[in-house]
Amino acid sequence: MSNNTGSNLSIQLQWKDLLLPYHDIGPRGRAPKLALVADPQGTGLNGMFVLSRLAAFLRSIEAGEQRDLRLLERVLVFPTLEGLVRSSNESDQRSRSPRTLAEAVMDLTRTAYYRVDICSADPEIEEIPQVRLYAPNDDERASACLFGLPAVIERPIADIDVSSQIRAWWFCGGENFVIHAGQAGGLQTGYCEDLFRSMVAFLDRTGIVSGLRPTSEDEDLHYFGLEQVFVVSAEQSGIFSSKLNVGRWVQAEETLGYIHDGFSGQIRAPVVAPVAGLLASVRRQPLLCTGGLVAQILMPDSTAQHSLAQRLGERHERRIGRGR
Predict the structure, then answer these.
(1) Is residue 250 a contact partner of residue 281, using CB atoms and an 8 Å limit?
(2) Which portions of the chain are predicted below pLDDT 50?
(3) Which residues contact 63 (CB under 8 A, 6 or more apart)?
(4) What's the CA gap between 112 and 64, in Å, rounded?
(5) pLDDT of amino acid 302
(6) What angle do CA 148, 153, 158 make, to 5 degrees?
(7) For the structural domain made of 2-219, what CATH number should be given?
(8) Strand 238-241 relative to strand 255-260, pairing
(9) What confidence score (pLDDT) does residue 82 get?
(10) Contact 223, 304 (CB under 8 A)
(11) 256 φ, ψ to 5°?
(12) Is 10 exposed, middle or buried (CB count within 10 Å of its CB: 0-12, 13-18, 19+)?
């Protein structure tokens, strides 16, 4: 049973007695084309901020407030789940679990063709905006490039975060994506602007919204396979400091930061880049144990990475133009 609750459409999941508010925007007479979910644990403030703004933007198109823009497909948007799931049964409300939330979202999003989970790294790590794929097919590889984010990264299935919605979507067909950006627990408005532009580009290139004119600021995207992610780990404990910004290119043997002694403050050791590549993430929580993650470097295997991503995107656009 659906209920209108202000700017949200809510559905009463009778089998769990949960009221889950979300945005259901576009033609109701068809299955959703796109489902967008932010971090269900409530720490992904970047995703929450971007999806709430995107939902308002789509609603303004649906209401005819955006000149020359048309919403052609149905879109489901879940800016956040934490604190918004309500129950008429007080004991059930106290006992609900993350698994229950995942099941509720799964029930609503299983028929969407595109599904996107926007996450943040844990509070210790800052990451560039990136699309992550897990055991992808060629369609997912092509579609991932349509977001126009700086990096598309293939990762092994074992690396899927336990809280990620993609675990529930795994056997639903369609295309599934995880987007990482920034740092959990905080709001980084620069990354939010990047993510919002990427969502608009995806809406345009998949034909979900017509009349958009996204900027071409996504030309420098790179695709990285399973063997192109190099993890830099700490060889000793201490306090780690780095002045480098994520998203820059580093050279082999370049200093990424320093490990200081927690008592004397003296430098114990520099941390250097073992390989050259794109600095995709760096540690921001200073306290560091031996073996802890310091940074991740994405290694292009050749200068053909850029053209590969472009070809995948162009092939996908041709496929969309021909229709499914």
Answers:
(1) no
(2) 1-8, 10-15, 83-88, 91, 93-95, 218, 303-309, 322-324
(3) none
(4) 24
(5) 56
(6) 145
(7) 3.40.630.10
(8) antiparallel
(9) 58
(10) no
(11) -90, -25
(12) buried
Assigned architecture for domain 228-298? Beta Barrel (2.40)
DSSP one-letter code for 26: S
Condensed to tens digits (0 to 9), the pLDDT of residues 121-144 reads 678 999 999 999 998 999 999 999
**Boundaries of every domain in the chain:** 2-219, 228-298
Sequence letter at residue 269: A
**Pairwise CA distance, residues 144 & 26, whole Å:** 23
Q: What are phi and psi of 179, to 5 degrees?
A: -115, 125
Residue with tokens 């970047």: 46
Please choose, from the candidates 107, 97, 99, 110, the residue with its C-alpha nearest in 3D space to the C-alpha of residue 170: 110
277: tokens are 């590549």
Ordered DSSP codes for 59-92: HHHHTT-STT-EE-S-EEEES--TTT-B-SSHHH
Positions of E strands within the chain: 2-5, 8-13, 18-25, 34-38, 70-71, 75-78, 114-121, 125-134, 151-155, 175-183, 209-210, 222-224, 229-233, 238-241, 249-250, 255-260, 267-272, 277-283, 287-288, 293-298
**Tell me: the pLDDT tens digits for 32-47?**
999 999 865 656 789 9
pTM above threshold 0.90: no
Give a three-class secondary structure readout of 220-263.
CCEEECHHHEEEEECCCCEEEECCCCCCCEECCCCEEEEEECCC
Count of positions (residues) in the chain = 324
Would you state the structure tokens that stand for residue 222, as one six-digit string? 């790179």
Closest alpha carbon to 80 in 125, 50, 107: 50
Yes or no: say if 221 and 150 are a contact pair by the CB < 8 Å rule.
yes
CA atoms 229, 230, 233, 239: torsion sign: negative
